[in-house]
Amino acid sequence: MRVLIVDDEPDLCRILQFNLEAAGFSTVVAHGGDEALAIEPLTLDLALLDVMMPGMNGFELARRLRERPSSSHLPIIFLTALDAEADVLRGFELGGDDYIAKPFSIKEVVARVKAVLARSLPHEASHVVTYNALKADYNSRTVTVDGIDAQLTRTEFDLLWLLINHRGQVYNRQQLIELVWPDGVVVSDRTVDVNITRLRKKIDPYGRCVATRQGYGYYFTADEEDH
What are the structural domains of the chain? Predict the structure, then answer.
């Protein structure tokens, strides 16, 4: 899971980044609202927003994130020294999922992040996703077709898990690279295509469900004829 940290205090960002990554999360940091809005929202799973920032504050940033279709359902946790009831209520009215008052315990932040993600990602909570005789198990990192192991690589599994959990959502190659491959690994568009081709073959006859939208990208469709 990738967490966006938005705060104008670099030291606090480094502390949050270090501890969240130690807890197993991937992170990206922005020091202001405009910088945060420039980040591709489809690569994010949750946002930690400081409220009191110069320029665009956290409430305004949350409002703008909620207005965009690509980030309208992004879980948001506010971090702020404002703990008056009116401020807390405003945060929730803007679509905030949680509110942590400063000063806070880093352990509390990590626990709150895990709790909000658990509530907002039902597919990951269930660990198993099925489509007819196709079954993907996140815990064992296995995929079976009619009970037979498809023997997917890690990358192939992650591609299928992403697409089948967001059926109908089209991802272009760059988005798939950012979401599936580790940071720092150089991946070409051709590599994405090759992995998709191998994935389709291994989950036959459901390979047709990993469809191509010409000029846009790949997606999982429940209509096996739509390919």
Answer: 2-120 (3.40.50.2300), 124-220 (1.10.10.10)
Lookup: tokens for 161: 């898990």
Give the pTM: 0.55
Please enumerate in sequence order all residues whose Cβ is within 8 A of that of 96, keeping only pairs 6 or more positions apart, or say none: 62, 76, 77, 78
C-alpha to C-alpha distances, 38 to 24, 43, 68, 83, 122, nearest whole angstrom: 24, 12, 12, 29, 28
**43 residue type, one letter:** T
Summarised one tens digit per residue, pLDDT across range 39-80 is: 887 778 899 999 888 889 889 999 999 888 778 888 999 888
How many residues belong to the chain?
227
Whole-angstrom Cα distance, residue 107 to residue 7? 18
Residue in this structure with the two tokens 């956290």, named with its chain if needed? 58
12 Cβ contact partners less than 8 Å away, ≥ 6 residues apart: 50
Amino acid at 124: E
